[in-house]
Specification:
Shape: rod-shaped
Strand content: under 5%
Number of helices: 7
Largest sheet: none
Structural class: mainly alpha
Number of strands: 0
Distance between the termini: 76 Å
Oligomer: single chain
Number of domains: 1
Length: 215
């Protein structure tokens, strides 16, 4: 590898390793495998999403209400657009004659549990993603160090063969790392997508509570 190209590789690997650990530096220090610039928030807060009745009891009973459970299973998944989900929630509550507040709270409890669980699964996946990137960056750095120890001007056939093999490894691993980094912004946005969905559906439930008055 020519000196200029070697210098470029050194700079690239240094940047790669910095990217792999950037999320941890900007998030919570204990989460070394968090690769996102977004601050890591492992769990959502009920208080940040809900201003209605205390959902603590509903969190343990919402599955005992078959109609509520079916509704939650329909509207929680992201394959249903938010506007369709909110329309279904409004239709469901419009048909409730007694204890609209209690029913809305049950729905919120179900949505919170379902979406928070999905979000947690995604976060753990992102952490595994970050761990793989960190490991790959370490391997690239190890290859670079070995290359630095081999004389680029050698006439030894075995050394030249080893250098060629290491350079091929670095090129391949760098390509994989770069492809993953390009996907990282989209991957890192997914927890926030779920958070926004839960907030939107919770807001609709709160509006329906206001309509329901004391019922």
């Amino acid at each position: 590898m020519m000196p200029v190209a070697r210098a470029a590789w050194v700079l690239w690997v240094a940047g790669a390793m910095a990217l792999a650990s950037a999320g941890a530096a900007m998030g919570q220090p204990k989460e070394a495998d968090w690769p996102c610039v977004q601050v890591l928030q492992p769990e959502l807060s009920v208080g940040a999403m809900w201003s209605g009745p205390d959902p603590a009891q509903a969190a343990t009973t919402w599955r005992e209400m078959p109609a509520v459970m079916v509704l939650v299973q329909r509207v929680a998944p992201r394959r249903m657009p938010v506007d369709e989900a909110t329309a279904e929630i409004r239709r469901f509550l419009a048909a409730v004659k007694d204890d609209r507040r209690g029913t809305a709270t049950q729905i919120f409890a179900g949505l919170f549990e379902s979406l928070n669980t999905e979000r947690g699964t995604i976060i753990r996946g992102i952490q595994r993603y970050g761990a793989r990137q960190s490991l790959l960056a370490e391997r690239i750095e190890a290859v670079r160090r070995e290359l630095d120890g081999l004389d680029p001007k050698t006439t030894d056939a075995k050394v030249r063969e080893r250098r060629a093999d290491l350079e091929a490894q670095m090129t391949w691993r760098a390509r994989i790392f770069d492809d993953r980094e390009k996907l990282l912004p989209l991957v890192c946005e997914q927890p926030a997508v779920i958070e926004r969905r839960l907030f939107a559906l919770s807001r609709v439930l709160s509006e329906e509570l206001d309509k329901g008055g004391g019922n």
